[in-house]
Amino acid sequence: MIYFQCDYAEGAHPRILDALVKTNFEQTPGYGVDVHCQNACKLIQEKIGKSDARVHFLVGGTQTNLTVIASLLKPHQGVIGVDTGHISCHETGAIEATGHKVLQIPAEDGKLSSDKLQAFLKNYWADDTHEHIVEPGMVYISSPTEVGTVYTKKELESLKQICRKYQIPLFLDGARLGYGLASEENDVFWKDLPNLVDVFYIGGTKCGALFGEAVVFCDDQNLDRHFRPIMKQKGGMLAKGRLLGIQFETLFTEDLYEKITTQAVQEALRLRDAFKAKGFEFLVDSPTNQQFPILDRKSIETLSQKFAFMIWPDNGEEKLATRFCTSWATKSEQVDELIAEIQQL
Amino acid sequence: MIYFQCDYAEGAHPRILDALVKTNFEQTPGYGVDVHCQNACKLIQEKIGKSDARVHFLVGGTQTNLTVIASLLKPHQGVIGVDTGHISCHETGAIEATGHKVLQIPAEDGKLSSDKLQAFLKNYWADDTHEHIVEPGMVYISSPTEVGTVYTKKELESLKQICRKYQIPLFLDGARLGYGLASEENDVFWKDLPNLVDVFYIGGTKCGALFGEAVVFCDDQNLDRHFRPIMKQKGGMLAKGRLLGIQFETLFTEDLYEKITTQAVQEALRLRDAFKAKGFEFLVDSPTNQQFPILDRKSIETLSQKFAFMIWPDNGEEKLATRFCTSWATKSEQVDELIAEIQQL
Amino acid sequence: MIYFQCDYAEGAHPRILDALVKTNFEQTPGYGVDVHCQNACKLIQEKIGKSDARVHFLVGGTQTNLTVIASLLKPHQGVIGVDTGHISCHETGAIEATGHKVLQIPAEDGKLSSDKLQAFLKNYWADDTHEHIVEPGMVYISSPTEVGTVYTKKELESLKQICRKYQIPLFLDGARLGYGLASEENDVFWKDLPNLVDVFYIGGTKCGALFGEAVVFCDDQNLDRHFRPIMKQKGGMLAKGRLLGIQFETLFTEDLYEKITTQAVQEALRLRDAFKAKGFEFLVDSPTNQQFPILDRKSIETLSQKFAFMIWPDNGEEKLATRFCTSWATKSEQVDELIAEIQQL
Amino acid sequence: MIYFQCDYAEGAHPRILDALVKTNFEQTPGYGVDVHCQNACKLIQEKIGKSDARVHFLVGGTQTNLTVIASLLKPHQGVIGVDTGHISCHETGAIEATGHKVLQIPAEDGKLSSDKLQAFLKNYWADDTHEHIVEPGMVYISSPTEVGTVYTKKELESLKQICRKYQIPLFLDGARLGYGLASEENDVFWKDLPNLVDVFYIGGTKCGALFGEAVVFCDDQNLDRHFRPIMKQKGGMLAKGRLLGIQFETLFTEDLYEKITTQAVQEALRLRDAFKAKGFEFLVDSPTNQQFPILDRKSIETLSQKFAFMIWPDNGEEKLATRFCTSWATKSEQVDELIAEIQQL
User: Which residues in D lie closer than 8 A to residue B237 (C-beta atoms)?
Assistant: First the structure.
């Protein structure tokens, strides 16, 4: 069985394991204040061209989302996100468990439209009963989105402008950031990010690391003032913090992060093309490492013999949406094998 | 200025004030374990024909909703409700502040359709990633709804049957219960309630009392086992609990509750007919004390000279939805005056 | 049975009921923005000599404590209070339920000593692992305390000075404020309060009202910026807010609040003297409306025939602490009757 | 500089890194349902002699404590623990942030005395105002404790008996479990644990792993019924769950866990003896890997030249408590070097 089910089916890029082995007996202070974390922070600052960005390392995505959001909101505020966003539907209510509502706006291909955002905020502040309504205190987006799409620079600029107007921070979940940067459609590069969002994170778990997400605060209001004690409180401060530092050091050395995610996206596009060539339609047109072909039941059954992939819950219809992911670990031969099978469907 | 803006613009029915004056120097234990609370509980048990119902008295609606819901859910669970439901949009995230998500289903005229509920629950349990999704742990409905509509007996039976199947409690917010019972379209009576829902509350604040909601647990699983300490924790246990007992004693003596809410509904229907006679349309067809005529800007301006009523936030359109409420305190002359004005629009 | 068990065994001062009756059919907007609340606010501002104090009205003490504290703390912060404080031990974890730890310091006769406070704060900031420890974000005290003692002006000045130094607000729970002001030992008067604390509340429930606490923000940092939506979220915003306004208007007209609490304290001191004259010792020397004589079991049994009072949980000892409360509603004849009984013990 | 500051200054035991390298390209499902987790679970079941124990793997200690406790308590309940316990003072209020109070009992050498526990529970239930007090819903202990002491079998039996009587679960934080098992004073062995506690965890982070704690539910009431969705909600479900499985597989193969913790304890006792030989006193008599000599300032200064260790916050006294930790990674030569220095103090 070959896994295309998700982008976290393997361990880590071998260079990361090498680095862990090499540094194993170094003695460092705990909790992320060691030299590896400092060095990783510096490499990230250089990459994004912002030497005063503050970087914090956490283990996983849900943990990162809940910690960032809980640290930014006041008790009566909620976070705006699209209905298909990870925090809206796939974190078992992690945000609500910190006391805050996710204010859901219907997504357009996984994205938050700036028109809808503007209308939502305007309506809130126009309503003179707004003391009775959750105040929108920040905006959450993910790019690539949960359905593989990527925000354009222009889209992010619009969102940022609206957030500025309403004086609320814009937070970008970059759990798959590398795959977005590697997309051919992408026009948002590392050095653009600090101008486009207030906080974002660079996904490690799905992009070559064993685990780890690097949260980057780019704002000039010291928004991460209380981030470390809140990390600790939420269970997100890793004792051996240097494990995170070492992994991001490795990923940000010799452009490893970009290289491996670019390779993954290229493999995904080969898959996409193979499905397209056979006339299959897609749930959404994704330029990144996740592909969502809509398959008939027979094709699903055939492919399931040798390959693992996600199938949407059975809704009684003849065709079901599916998800095939590549990752930094996907080998060309694995994709070749799948393509061969697709061609015979 | 005559108020039709809400159903809590005045104090309380005079008999309630009389009772408070009469009992004022009685000495009773605090926190709702006094004879008046016991007596009110008995009167409610008799009214609904269920001698083992457990009754708890709280001060207000948001407080009641958050206390009931927090007491019934496990940490990973949320409460299903319609998007126009009070807990979804008009309580400043009170439910989320207790750690739980409101799982919003689009309303149909303010109501939760049993088809949509069934589909929602089925989808949840069919999804094999459901550990990552908030588990639906109970269902919240309000009747009358926030737009004045009332559930039929058949609708409630369907909802209850689905809740039974999925073993989750059904909770009815009856902040305006009296106005629903008094509606001509209503076919759900006091003695039906224990068979149709697991928990409900009888609104006092909007139905003749100074304040107060009587929560009635009708389930046979002892669902209110921990309700009193949770009431205390959430700030909802009134020191002079007898104030609630005395008010509900009064409301449930000589059918005062029904009489005053019936009168209010009749006045509301007179208003409805007056608007209809002039050709105005309505946001929704409401048989209870809230009426939602859609008025042109000129009519709004004219009526606003002498009457207070709610106007939907300005959306740039020529016509805006409005809300006119009657209550137990509304006088026929006040309605006459408004009708006279409507007729001249 | 005559109740000395608590100071909330009766309804309200008759003038309050009169005012409720008189205003009953006035129509006002809900949620505390009516003229009565505005007027009560003005009367309180005048009383304390601070025309820019902001006043918010809530129903009960636990609700007030949790709302004020939740509105002032950041997620990683806790509130300092003594171990015998109401929030530490008698609110079923209401503060923790909002996510914050109560940082308990051992009380001295119910009070927080400034030395202990200073040491606590110094230790916290001296500890270089303090990211792992709850940050003290505010200080809670009550005066009179739960055991009837009253802070002197000098004590409050010391506490305030320390809070200033550490830039954290000082919050005074005045659930029984009137009884403290009326104590002969008291040297803190209305106009001192704004200089001594950042936020305090004036207890109504135990001092003549049916219910109600007036929270007064005296700080110059706009600390109540988000107080109203948080009140709503926590279930503490009363629909008919004017009921609170009317009650405080009455209490602050013609010095009613002072008159009735002074009378109560005088009756309490008569009780104290009667117990003292018979040689009984006291748990603490209280100059206010709560008295804590330590009684032998036989005396307890005798007095229990005709009087209700609190008895400390049985610890197997021969003598047990008890609590006798007077209140605005206590009649001299009731006290006479109890004294007569004491004299025969 | 040689680190004796903590037991998490290095990476992981080399065999763990080997295992991670060896399994790196295996493809497994995420979130802890892979074969490695299943295998690790089986090894743990065998080790403790309880084939129906349920095992869940988390990343760190604070995360584990908050997840277990939040999953076991009802909203109005708190967790009993000693004042020096990790959850009481070193997790930035992680438990309170889930809504629950830590009910602190003064420790005796880091331990919870069964007499004090019994008295606490008895008092709670004897108090007829207990609706107003946080209900003790479970008991938390750590062994070894935060000051290195270890519970005896008899002590645990007493605690368990009391918990049984009051029908509340007993939870043992075993962040340093291995070092306790390896202590010469210890009389609690693997197969005793299921009989002595309801839930415990086996610390990996401090005992040879890169990170990871294995939570073991031994109760027969299905207490972990909702554990997985709550893990997810709290951010504790690792995407590549197999990383935890692989580490615990390794630790529980060929008794690696016991071997490396035994070695660490022996080194610690050599340190202890060296300090004792020079006449230093200890904060507490610890038989495990943490030693707490009380040192004069000059000795502290001298040792600080070459060694890192924890020093208690400066309290102005001549002598200060310190902590020296050994770990699975401590080399005999490092200890030799420190001992040589001690001998010259």
Answer: 131
User: Do A267 and A297 sit in the same domain of this protein?
Assistant: yes
> What CATH number did the domain enclosing D294 receive?
3.90.1150.10
- Examine the domain organization and report whether A240 and A221 are in the same domain: yes
Cβ-based neighbours of A198, under 8 Å, separated by 6 or more: A163, A169, A170, A171, A217, A218, A219, A223
Contact D313 C127 (CB under 8 A): yes
3-state secondary structure of D2: strand
Domain boundary residue among D251, D281, D297? D251
C240 and C326 part of one domain: no
Domain boundary among C194, C220, C251: C251
Are residues C229 and A70, on separate chains, in Cβ contact within 8 Å?
Answer: no
The span from the CA of A230 to the CA of A91, in Å, is 19
The H or E element containing residue C158 is helix C153-166
- Taking an 8 Å cut-off on Cβ atoms, the answer to whether A99 and B104 are in contact is no
Min CA distance, C34 vs chain B (Å)? 10
List CB contacts (< 8 A) between D98 and chain C: 99
Same domain, B208 and B331: no
Interface confidence: ipTM more than 0.95: yes
Per-residue pLDDT reduced to its tens digit, A207-226: 999 999 999 999 999 999 99
Counting as low any pLDDT under 70, the low residues of chain C are: none
pLDDT for B156 equals 98
Give the range of the structural domain holding residue B333, as residue numbers without chain letter: 2-7+256-343
pLDDT at C334: 97
Q: Are residues C261 and C247 in the same domain?
A: no
Q: Are residues A284 and A198 located together in one domain of the fold?
A: no
Rounded to two decimals, the pTM is 0.98
| For residue A313, pLDDT beyond 90 | no
User: How many CB atoms lie under 10 A from the CB of residue C253?
Assistant: 14
CB spacing of C238 vs B14 below 8 angstroms: no
Between chain B and chain C, how many beta carbons pairs sit less than 8 Å apart?
148
Best mutation target among B3, B18, B35, B62 (most C Cβ atoms within 10 Å) is B62
What is the overall mean pLDDT for chain A?
Answer: 97
Closest by Cβ to C131, choosing from A70, A131, A228:
A228
- CB contact (8 A) between residue A127 and residue B92: no
Are residues A28 and D9, on separate chains, in Cβ contact within 8 Å?
A: yes
Q: Could you tell me if A134 and A203 lie in one domain?
A: yes
- Domain containing residue A61: CATH number: 3.40.640.10
Return d(Cα B302, Cα B306) in angstroms, integer.
8
Nearest CA in chain D to C135: D92
- Report whether B199 contacts B219 (CB < 8 A): yes
List residues of chain A with CB under 8 Å from any CB of chain B.
Answer: 75-76, 78, 89-93, 96-102, 104, 123, 126-129, 131-135, 313-314
Q: What subunits make at least 3 CB pairs under 8 angstroms with D?
A: A, B, C
Q: Mind listing the pLDDT tens digit for each residue in B169-208? A: 999 999 999 999 999 999 999 999 999 999 999 999 999 9
The residues that bridge with B202 in the sheet, in sequence order, are B214
**Best CA proximity match to A148, nearest among A330, A287, A309, A308:** A287
pLDDT in tens, C134-145: 999 999 999 999
Give the count of domains, chain D. Answer: 2
Interface with chain C: mutation pick from D74, D92, D105, D118, highest number of C CBs within 10 Å? D92
Q: For residues D215 and D64, is the Cβ–Cβ distance under 8 A?
A: yes
- Best mutation target among B68, B131, B167, B222 (most D Cβ atoms within 10 Å) is B131
What's the Cα-to-Cα distance from B41 to each of B36, B49, B215, B252, B312, rounded to whole Å? 8, 12, 10, 10, 39
Residue D180 and residue D113 in one domain = yes
Q: Exposed, middle or buried by CB within 10 Å (0-12, 13-18, 19+), for A334?
A: middle
Which positions in chain D touch B131 (Cβ < 8 Å)? 31, 228-229, 232, 237
